[in-house]
Amino acid sequence: MTPAQAKEIFRKFNSSFDETCRKQSSFVVSDPKLRDEMKVSLARKIVQVIGNSTTLTGLMLSESEMLG
Q: Helix or strand or coil: residue 6?
């Protein structure tokens, strides 16, 4: 994957994330237990995605330095 391709992937992710936040920002979960479970679940998923992207970015940077 080239740096340009990675940049496009991040751009698409950010765009989709922003759109989803905009659409779901008015949602209300009245059950406190369910709300807390959802927060934990989302946090885990976001951390996993960020970790994967950071690893991917690091690998791409290392590869481009080797080729550079």
A: helix
Cβ-based neighbours of 56, under 8 Å, separated by 6 or more: 1, 6
d(CA 50, CA 11): 14
Token representation of residue 61: 């940077």
C-alpha angle 11-28-18 in degrees, rounded to nearest 5:
10
Structure tokens at 52: 């994967």
pLDDT, position 45 = 87
Q: What is the pLDDT of residues 13-64, one digit of tens each?
A: 899 989 999 998 898 999 999 999 999 998 888 888 777 766 666 656 565 5
Burial 18-52 (b: 16+ CB within 10 A, else e): eeeeeeeeeeeeeeeeeeeeeeeeeeeeeeeeeee
